[in-house]
Amino acid sequence: MQKGRNIIVAPNGARRGKEAHEELPLTLDEMSQCLTLCADAGAAMAHMHVRDKEGKHTLDVALNNEWLTEIRKQHDHDLVIQLTTEAVGQFKPHEQMELVRGTQPEAVSLALRELRPNASFERDASRFFYELLERKIYTQYILYDAADLSLYFQMLNDEKLPNRGHHLLLVLGKYKKGMLSAPTDLLNFDIKRISCEGISWATCAFGEDEHQCLAAAMSLGGDVRVGFENNLVNLMGQHAINNAELVQQLALLSQKMGLNINSAEDLRKNISRSFES
């Protein structure tokens, strides 16, 4: 039996606001309402950026705790909630680490190049990665290109990064002109090696070809992340009604490909297994 695919929804991201789409959630209440619809549409995990009163992305520990506590209270039964440590060009590695230590999320995403920007940061980054393993925080290492993937394998081989309790997010289109991805961008990553080594991975894709990129990823064994952080356009090339429409279209596409979609319960079982020796 084929393993089920996990659909992750990224409803808001760090930069877009209401000018991009009126249904992009910027407040706690809006996020909760959005996630209710996304869970019903087939998402198993939510990648959540906390916004402050001005609508700006923030790593403030108290505010992130407030959002995380309330969202988990409402959605813990149907979604795994993943916090993000995204730097957006202003937060330093120690601030990103402080966020995770101060909130203790079930899952977190972090860009490997942000926590380990050069070799001088490797010792502290490595200690932090092993700390996440010890605390059983499911960690998503965000990789933007082949160099990031090479660094990941180097750190894994050198035991600077634990070989359990994590997965990868391969980002397509982030640094291309116009931030427009294409399915062939997956060829920049060594998917064969990732798969042969049994590493769980997912893909997100910027731009209007998001769906085609994610279909390619699913066909290669990957999970997928969809939502307004990366793309606002549905399969018909029109502005999506909301995040849930993008999730639903991806879930239907998966079914047509003969692939099962995991529930949050299924995902948590896989997460638990990922921490086993």
TrEMBL record:
> The organism sits in which domain of life?
Bacteria
Q: Read off the Pfam families from this record.
A: BKACE (PF05853)
Q: Which InterPro entries match?
A: Aldolase_TIM (IPR013785), BKACE (IPR008567)
- Is Metal-binding found in the keyword set? yes
Q: Which cofactor does it need?
A: Zn(2+)
Report whether Transferase shows up as a keyword of the record: yes
Keyword annotations for this protein, in alphabetical order, are: Metal-binding, Transferase, Zinc
- By what name is this protein known? 3-keto-5-aminohexanoate cleavage protein
